[in-house]
Protein 1
Amino acid sequence: MAMLRPALALPFLLLLLPAAAGGLSGGRTLVFILAGQSNMSGRGGATNGTWDGIVPPECAPSERILRLSPALRWEEAREPLHAGIDVGNVVGIGPGMAFAHAVLAGSEGAESVVGLVPCAQGGTPIANWSRGTELYERMATRARAAVAECSGRGELVGMLWFQGEADTMRREDAELYRRRMETLVHDVRGDLGRPDLLVIQVTHRFLLLLSLSARTVVLPPNKQTESVIFLSGP
């Protein structure tokens, strides 16, 4: 299992993307699923039942960053990305827009577009994301619709998975997490026809997994959030 310093995470990820996307050819839409619980859907600036509306520069809109709407149509992405998706919760800033800007910055001159597919739902354990559940089927439906909406000029290249806190409450769930995560990755890759789908996982340090594949990279835990990042290639 390889280890990288956080500063090296993005360059390594951008090296994996061309292989996952078959090359960053101009004019293509690179589609990423955003799934997990509240840290993915975003709670930045969401306090006392409202979002403060403050958008950091790294999360600003761009004509090269799209969001799949709740109605399954591409639109210019704007915060909060999970508006209308994370049902019943007040959403704010999440990691999606900053990630998309970083991908674009690493593909200068490629004229690619990043298409984000928000699917996260706050407070959900990984068991709620197993094949056949409402959240899994919604995610798969939205991912297929996102690619179809690209009219042959888009490709599903990755899934960002930020989840795990809900599975630290009971020892049984924590012990089952590795198997459930491996099953989720296997099912997503199989059901979406992408056996080489890049999976970027952020989870709690108490849910440390063994390598999901020979190309998994694990970053050291964040000292404040206790989170760990896994980059899982084919």
Protein 2
Amino acid sequence: MFARPSRRAPLPLLLSVLIGLPLMAAAVGVRPAATGQLPDREVDAFVTQLGAAVRADELLTSDDRVRVAQEDEDPDEDGLSSELETELGLAPDDPDTDDDGTPDGHEDTDGDGLRNIDEVRLTETDPGRTDSDGDGRSDAREDPDRDGLYDRFEVNRTSTDPRAEDSDRDGIHDGYEDRDGDLLSSKGEQRFGTNPNKRNTDGDRRSDWHEDSDRDGIPNGREQDSGPIPSSLRPRLSRATDDVPPTHRKICHSRGTATTPRACSWTFGPRQGRKLVVLTGDSHAAHWLPAILEVAEHRGWKLMNITKSSCPVADVMPSPGDAQDRACMTWRHRAWARIQALEPDLVIASSLDSYGFVYGGSTRTKSDSAWKAALTRSLRKLGKGRTKVLMLGDVYPWGAQGAVNDCLRRHPRNFAPCQKTRSSGTAAWVRRRDKVGAAAARSANATFRSTRNILCPYDPCSLIVDRILVTRDGGHLSATYSREIWRAIDRLIPNL
């Protein structure tokens, strides 16, 4: 942005000059030999008399050219070009113009909290102006990537890219990462002035989450997301329940007493070597579909879904055991047969893991051991032959279906009271079910991956991430957010 344009002669100029030497020789008083070629000494004289029109560094290697360019543009090696230093009133040939022990590149000439070199290389702002774009906000407090973190915080504290909302491309936006494991997001640490790289910034034996920085009697962790519902929320709260996976609109997701599996398919990439992947389970499998569709396009798969609401992956009859629950048992066994006939490369299975189910004929239970045995049976059925099986763990519950949206409507100016903490009894119970799911997967020679830290990287589990509503109804992901976190899901899926 502030670099001086290179005045180096291009290679095509060198070739044209060399080819045209005999024709131009007369212009400088050098007589060609009878053969039409110039002797070496006369070539040297010719080049000298042209004023060395072609610079010698054009004949250097590419690495050498970079070095020469850097030396030419930044002779004092302080990270700032000579042109920029002149504009800032600094000495281009002195790395520490004011002799204060701080190199010019590390100075903050405009006093906005960003070093000169960081404004040039990272934030792409003017180190000579506090407010480069004249919008009334200092460069240090800009947030061009809209990840919730100011540029100064990203540069000086989290070392994330102020021009990318997800610097490490892990599917979790920079502002919502918990770098030090204290359950405060980076956004929360910025809000309360704590260190995102230390669990206990002041060393007082109380974690930053449990501090009460504003002295209102509420710990920082409970208030870290305090604020109004964004006016640009996607999907709009009034349309949240309509933000569903494409299967729901194409009528290829089974419901109610249906016993025949329906399916949709999407095909990406070249035919040769294409992998077949099947997504199966209940509506908690279907809500991953927008993310997995992005993965399928990225990897060039053919993707099929075979899903049914209120019908878990585990081989159990959901309670109370009515006609719909009995239909689930029939549907599941038919789904197994269809998937086995397809011989897919990978089956991705997922479902709600807090079902009550009928056990021993009539007893309603949530027994971990019975759930593990039933899930193991199912995963073995899905993993016949060469097929790999991946079981995605369930999400943290955001609240009773419908209740979350009602709460958000009641609290438009501060949605924090609508969020559940990880310490709730329900959250603790479902964490235990992750362990049960992992044990079942091991027994079935399948793979289990938890998704809880993707959707709840800090505490409480946020309902809104960067103006995106996370859940459409309190129990399922919104299709918009599912699509947003596809890179995080991609990391959980094995290579095929």
Protein 3
Amino acid sequence: MAWVIQKKGIDRYSEYVDLVLRDDAEFLKFRRNRDIRGIIDGVTPAGGRSYLKKIRALDSEWIERRWSDIALNDLIGCPDRTYFGCGVPMSPVCMRYAWQALEADRRLELGGKHIVEIGGGYGGLARIICDLFEPASYSIIDIPSVQSLARKYLDRYHLRTPVHMLPTSHRGGSDIVIANYSLAEFVRSEQRSYLDSIVLLSKSAYIVHNIPNPSSKQMSRKEFESILRDKFDVDSYEEGVERSEQSRVFICASKRIPQSDGSR
């Protein structure tokens, strides 16, 4: 995986992940470390409240019923948590994961599906999806050290859904592919590679993607959606949940266009 974000930041991230894998005491507080907190827990309390508002607009009963289950994400890593007016305090990024999981389920139906996530990080979104929606399997594509961190984190929860780690060289489709900001971090050649070799081979996709700066060499939103529309019925929209965000994101929830010959 080749990123467009600064190499210095990636190096600090990788070095700290290696430390967390060696040191259990560090693992118990890894989400507080300043070298990686901005990468894995970069949602503000205001952003968390915005996500909560979106969840309640979609299904207010669901969030009240599953609040404690969602908050279990924060048992590991000692993240900063926010009191949102009800239930136990929760990290704002946990609220983002809850919104993304609920919305993806309403659009694509996660239960019983085989899911692949490109760039799964420490496993926060995976934990919520596997626990609350019970897919048939969940696979994470990331660099080896981060996969080891995800395995260490997810193993603490004894999930019913089997979780697999796939190499960055993996090629092939799935029922659902998820890319939560990850494709936005790749250089253009890898963006296209993952689209061709995984996303376009899958039955459906849920993609959260930064809108690139016009001066960048990454794919524009128009290019990105044009590639997807060749194979998928694409439902996409733009949002800017957090006031602190400099860039907005677009979200694509896509289902493969039915083929007359019966192929996927």
Protein 4
Amino acid sequence: MAGRAQHHGPVRTALAAWGGPEVIGPLGGGHRNPVLELRRGRERLVARWSRRPQAGLDWELGLLDQLARLGLRVPETVPALDGRRHVGGVVVQTWLDGTPPGPADWPAVAAAVRHLHEVTAHWPQRPGFASTLDLGTADRGGDVDLAAMPAAAVAACRQAWAALAGTSQAVVHGDLAPANIRMSRSGPGLLDWDEARVDYTDLDLADLPDSGLPPARLSAARRAVTAWEAASGWRIEPGYARRQLALLGQPPGQPPSQPPSQPPSQPPSQPPGLSAVRPPRRTRPGR
């Protein structure tokens, strides 16, 4: 908790650039990026501190601007009083109303995610990031630093990512946990774009209960996501990253919590080792 709170002081200081809105309190887990709920008059807003360099943050905000113009529900950037879109890594955005998706909402979420992929098929890579394709030879990108990992772990991650070769690439959200999705009468809204980048689109679809991917491709995508989680969290969340690496060490068709002799618990239509819904990647509600 102390590690999380240490960033709140700088966030509150930076908020003077927005006229000193009232801070209601922290939102979500905020393990990587502190998030605060704000009030400015009748406006309900959100402030987030980002670790990303300026170019990477500009890429994210420019992406959200374009997605909003194309009809996707995403947070809108609220500029500071002097027109700046971020100050000291702090971004203020509009509040996105809604609730996390229920079982009947996932087809609409999947449609929104596929629309995201369609409209960003030729989007440039986020500055400072590398796709899982690039990380087949590169060592660093975003939160990933393969040079810090044991050689066997790097080999396991690269093997998982190589299985997606030949599939489509576009901007991926990167963290489609239910807590980062808001359903309303206007449709699904997507929050927390901190991990967005250009990468294989199957990485997003693997997080959805109704991905529409063929079983073998879905299994490969889920392993690739697990590899990404292990690599991207190796320095920032070492305990979580090592648990993900342990999952990656399981044979592709065998769930780690289920002995090989036990019959699969899912319906026969699911291949062994695949559940209808991918387990949440993190126990926290967001960053």
